[in-house]
């Protein structure tokens, strides 16, 4: 029996999109890690760009930037794992077998990742704001706060995980009675 979803255009597009996003996130992660030594090697340029009346020392500013880059790397890595799980779910739908316990686990992980990114984003914004004060003449801005859309996404993912868990259990019960 052939699977009608095997050639579904939306699933193919979703898979391609998740692979592209993963590639971009991978490049972003590499860029963030490479930026750390570059920042420290560019101390003199950063010192020139800093405001003369900055309350932060050059060392504190470099440390703050380094922490922001490291936490950014954590956030990008979490997003990479999020999209890897999404790709696996898309693949299982394309194979015609989405209601498996593994997809329920993946959806739960995606929900926790969504919340984790929100938790990490708060100190990133605070530290970035602190570091930006050293460059007042450069007009840096930092936008911070909890993203209500991300919180709603996390709740939706946790609910879908329960739906998938229940669907997998119902299918196992049905297969056991046949």
Jot down its keywords.
178 residues, mainly alpha
Number of helices: 5
Average of pLDDT:
89
For the record, give the distance between the C-alpha atoms at the N and C termini, rounded to a whole number: 19 Å
* Low-pLDDT sequence parts: none
Transmembrane segments: 16-40, 60-83, 109-132, 144-164
Keywords: Membrane, Transmembrane, Transmembrane helix
Pfam families: DUF2975
Organism: Qipengyuania aquimaris
What would a concise description of this structure say?
This is DUF2975 domain-containing protein. With about 180 residues, the protein is mainly alpha-helical.
Description:
The chain has 178 residues and is an all-alpha fold. The protein is built from five helices and no strands.
Question: Can you lay out the helices and strands and say which pair or pack?
Answer:
Blueprint: H1 9-41, H2 43-49, H3 58-94, H4 101-132, H5 148-177
Helix pairs in contact: 1-3, 3-4, 4-5
């Amino acid at each position: 029996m052939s699977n009608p979803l095997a050639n579904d255009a939306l699933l193919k597009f979703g898979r391609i999109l998740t692979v592209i996003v993963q590639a971009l996130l991978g490049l972003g992660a590499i860029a963030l890690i490479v930026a750390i030594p570059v920042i420290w090697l560019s101390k003199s340029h950063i010192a020139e760009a800093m405001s003369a009346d900055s309350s932060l020392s050059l060392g504190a500013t470099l440390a703050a930037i380094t922490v922001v880059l490291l936490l950014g790397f954590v956030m990008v890595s979490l997003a990479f794992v999020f999209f890897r799980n999404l790709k696996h779910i898309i693949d299982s739908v394309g194979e015609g077998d989405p209601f498996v316990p593994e997809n329920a686990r993946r959806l739960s992980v995606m929900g926790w990742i969504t919340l984790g990114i929100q938790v990490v984003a708060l100190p990133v914004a605070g530290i970035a704001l602190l570091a930006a004060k050293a460059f007042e003449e450069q007009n840096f801005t930092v936008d911070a706060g909890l993203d209500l859309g991300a919180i709603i996404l996390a709740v939706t993912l946790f609910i879908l995980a329960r739906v998938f868990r229940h669907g997998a259990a119902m299918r196992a019960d049905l297969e056991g009675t046949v």
